[in-house]
Amino acid sequence: MLSVEEYRARVLALASLPPVEECAIGSGFGRVVAEDMVAHCAVPPFDNSAMDGFAVRSADTLGGAHLTVVADLPAGTRLAPLIGAGQAARIMTGAPLPPGADAVVPVEDTDQSPGDVPLPDAVRVPPVAVGAHVRRAAEDVAVGAVVVPRGQRWTPASAAAAAAVGHARVRLHRRPTVAVLATGSELLPAGAPLGYGQIPDSNSVLLAGLVEQFGGQVVCARAVSDDLADFRQALVDAADAEVIVTSGGVSVGAFEVVRQAVEGSIEFVRVAMQPGKPQASGRIRDAAGREHTLVALPGNPVGAFVSAWVFVRPFLDACQGAFSEPPTLRIAVADGWRTPPGRAQFMPVVITPDGVRPAHRLGSGSHLIASLHAAEALAFVPADVERVAPGDVLDVHLVR
Ligand code: AMP
Ligand code: MG
Predict the structure, then answer these.
(1) How far apart are CA 96 and CA 103, in angstroms?
(2) The CATH number of domain 48-135, selected from 3.30.565.10, 3.40.30.110, 3.40.630.30, 2.170.190.11
(3) Molecular function terms in GO for this entry (predicted)?
(4) Which of 187, 196, 250 to mutate to test the pocket of ligand 1 (most atoms within 8 A of CB)?
(5) How confident is the model at residue 253 (pLDDT cuts 50, 70, 90)?
């Protein structure tokens, strides 16, 4: 049996980067930045006022002063009047600090009211220090600084940062295309009336949703029977996908269709984890000679879910050039549970003020799909631990 880390390393070794695309900064959220974005202009680009008030020379205000108001400066003004000794300018938030001035007095600290019309001739101000209520040019970002590093997910806040430093376009990795095939002759499409021995296919919607959440682009997602010819045809239909994620048919039963179809080109392994022991992955070549990466997960729905988080997520991250690992929290256990000896365990848990507890009274049963959605996280129990006791502290990975 392989450890979780050993098998994850093998899956990661299969990853390849799709090409880079240039996109408008308002698009492509969730994709990964392909090149460092460097500031073309500083933020802020010029010294400006942080308050509505009066721009003054600090040295004039010692002990308080009565200053002559010589200009009115709204945000966007093109005026840059020189503020001389004994003078002030009314200034609004975001307007450039005029030459000569070195501080701003907020209007509420003066004898004037906000928005007084007409402009007052004079203003009484208290003492104010150099730089007070002034946003300095480049205090956020200087020209040439890396503002959004490559490897990071593109978000609305990264787009705002890019806009602020002068970019209208961004280079993003294309999303890897993924086909999801859930194998099993017992499976019917969701909503179809069930006959004897049949169950709804819940894995294809589960895995397709997770793949989208992980940044993949799902090109098809459906159930396929355990008939070898059907599965081979499904692989042909999935030929547009760079990655094929399957569920079921990888263990040691009699109708293991994934195993029958690709044995030889793909490595079938047992991983020391619970749930999710049978796994397979590798490269397959289609009739047209194109290569696809196959990541085959166990059919049990909770096993498929855990395997997706533990193997498919880091694999798709690597296929997108993403550097950042999802955060691992360290949380105490509220209610203990038994764990299988010699196998790492990923327990679906809820996070309560007292700590984590299993999301289902039956623990990590790998068929408990109808209650899996209650889980907020997977608690990781190392292979050498046999009993988790209240107060133990575990690594916890959020799964929402
Ligand atoms: P397998 O790995 O194919 O042996 O499947 C293991 C268990 O998971 C069986 O009880 C299957 O019925 C169930 N199962 C497999 N695929 C799915 C699916 N797509 N949706 C729901 N249950 C599934
Ligand atoms: Mg099956």
Answers:
(1) 12
(2) 2.170.190.11
(3) metal ion binding; molybdopterin molybdotransferase activity
(4) 187
(5) confident
